[in-house]
Amino acid sequence: MSLSNSTGRWVERKAGAGGGDADKQPYEELTSYIPLEAVTIFLALVSLINGLEELGRTISLPLVGVVGEFDAYVLCGIVVVPLVVFLVKLAKEKKDGVKTGFPTWPIAAGLLAYAVWGLTVPGVFEDPVLHVVAAPAAIIVSKILSLVEGVIG
User: Fold this and answer.
1) Of 19-23, 71-75, 131-135, 142-146, the least confident
2) For 51-105, what is each residue's pLDDT tens digit?
3) Under 8 Å between Cβ of 153 and 24
4) 107 near 86, Cβ under 8 Å?
5) Helix H or strand E encompassing 65
6) End-to-end CA gap in the chain
7) How many CB atoms lie within 10 A of CB 21?
8) 3-state secondary structure of 68
9) Quick one: 8 exposed, middle or buried, by C-beta within 10 A (0-12, 13-18, 19+)?
10) Of 53, 66, 73, 117, which one has the greatest count of Cβ atoms within 10 A?
């Protein structure tokens, strides 16, 4: 998805009753806080890592060593989510001609939503405890984010 398309989806998110969309399920509501580019890059990296492992190859980086699914998860969470949110904000400011300040709330909400969402992706983390914890955490975090967004607008 292009930056201009995600600008409309991310920055101009419509809030319904209680801060979230009334028609959305909790998981949909949770993913609406995550830039689609971060999800796409994460899933592409996981696919690449798994494909290389099937061929008996790995990706190695200095200071990191062999790159695995967890590394892709952390990279996308720490780098891609904030970067995309910030770039979307800059694109919106340029389009509208209005400076809006640093996007603290969208970055914080995106990071928290991504952290929980990433744990629920099947096949990435093998520990069954993570899946047991991640499913209810996704619902709880989704509701908390929508309530907080309703309060701070």
Assistant:
1) 19-23
2) 888 888 888 777 777 778 888 898 899 999 999 999 999 999 999 988 888 999 9
3) no
4) yes
5) strand 65-66
6) 26
7) 16
8) coil
9) exposed
10) 117
